Amino acid sequence: MAKTAELEKLLEQVATRDRDAFGDLYALTSGKLFGVCLRILASRPKAQAALWSAFVQIWQDAKSLQTSGLRPMTWMIHIAHQKSIQRLRLDLTDVSQETLADEAQTEGEWPEDLVLKPSEHGQLINCMEVLPWERSAVFRLAFVEGETYPDLAAHFDLPVDTMRTWVRQDLHILSECLDR
Questions:
Q1: Which of 27, 82, 149, 166 makes a 20 to 30 Å CA pair with 134?
Q2: pTM metric for this prediction
Q3: Taking the CA atoms of the chain, what radius of gyration do you get in angstroms?
Q4: 98: part of which helix (H) or strand (E)?
Q5: How far apart (Å, rounded) are the C-alpha atoms in residues 71 and 53?
Q6: Which CATH number fits the domain 1-94, given the four candidates 1.10.1740.10, 3.20.20.140, 3.40.30.10, 1.25.10.10?
Q7: Taking Cα atoms as reference points, which of 176, 117, 165 lies closest to residue 142?
């Protein structure tokens, strides 16, 4: 994985619309970001579409990295994750009740179970939006990416104990939100 300083330099160049730097940035980070998209969407074509969308936003918003206070890779992972979630939401709203019932019969699940799954997923997404975006980024990196407390602390330049506290607090907030 590329060093933070190298990514910062490339993103500064991308902010000035340097296409070569953008190509280098893509070559260095696309594998990791594709992994983020693929874990969320579980479909290569959908993950590729989300990755493309993420890099379009990275190209457009490269100037905002300095004001975000995040490390470059954390910032890009956040964008890829958001684009994947947006794609997942679109897919969930496009699924008709008839399709869900057909899938239930072929997979041995009850139609009610399949109808509830998207709404439960939607409820989790809505609850995640209750968290400040920095905290939701920490939560997603921990539970989607599988990053450890020391990894998260390094990404955000905070003590490990602070990361543990954030995750515990966020789990409590999400639990309360999901119980409503």
A1: 27
A2: 0.53
A3: 18
A4: helix 97-107
A5: 20
A6: 1.10.1740.10
A7: 165
